Amino acid sequence: MSGAGTADAGAAAAATAGTFSADPNYAKLDPELQTAFKSKGWDVRTPFETAVETMKSYREMEKHFGVPADRIARIPKDTNDAEGWKALNAKLGVPDKPEGYDFSAIKFSDGTELDAGFVEKMRAAVLSEGIPPVRAQNLVSQFVKYMESAETDETAARTAALTEQRENWVKSCGPNLKANEFIADQAAQKLGWGPEFFAALKEMNVVGADKVMEGLLKVGKMMGEDKFVSSPNSSTSGVLTREQALERIKELKADQAFVTKLMSGDDKANKEFSALERIVAGA
Q1: In terms of residue numbers, what domain contains 98?
Q2: What residues contact residue 43 under an 8 Å CB cut-off, 6+ apart?
Q3: Spatial CA neighbour of 104 closest among 118, 124, 90
Q4: pTM surpassing 0.90?
Q5: In a domain, 96, yes or no
Q6: How confident is the model at residue 269 (pLDDT cuts 50, 70, 90)?
Q7: What is the pLDDT of residue 10?
Q8: Would you place residue 138 in the very low, low, confident or very high pLDDT band (cuts 50, 70, 90)?
Q9: Is residue 8 assigned to a domain?
Q10: 107 and 62 within one domain
């Protein structure tokens, strides 16, 4: 039995004598590498066979991961590794200065160039995020399109609001539009508001102008400014229409006492006659 055992051991030794693991240098390899060779069964192959298998494995890996050395980039493990991230960004083409980003080709749809201040802020923003130039251009371009779209929507909404409030004011005044504007104007003057302000207010080019006009109309009536454009006849009480204003002017011109006051610069007479003329002129 002992002879058979010796023979078997000798055969095994002979069989492994030419394997990769039998090489004296194999024992000097890092244990982790030895484990890797054993896991693939390469340790029991000849050095030539092991070399062939190694090359096959490498070529297979190249199909999936093989890239030129100058295109290999390492992702830092530590998020605070400033130099590591700087090196990675450099590999990705990120410039080292804000001026490295060129947004001159990006313009608004009407050809207007981007504001210098906006460009400066966007350059700083994309650089701080490590965004490559091409992606940065796409990002800024999309942002400019969004701003234009938002501005268009805002303009449309504002125009609609202004149109609606102008229509509401005209509708609420009805045939007394000019008379009501006169009363509101008189109230604005008493409050010390300049004619330019009231002219802009009357154009309804500011959202909320109709509410201000309604407020001035109420104030004017409380001040008694409406009496200059109101019908003196109880049967036709209310603010005068254009036709009624024409009739009232005719009556006043026939009233010698009123004409004398008007010619002498009487304030009350001047206000009434001026109001009537504005109603007639529609101004």
Answers
A1: 82-150
A2: 19, 20, 21, 26, 34, 37, 50
A3: 118
A4: no
A5: yes
A6: confident
A7: 45
A8: very high
A9: no
A10: no
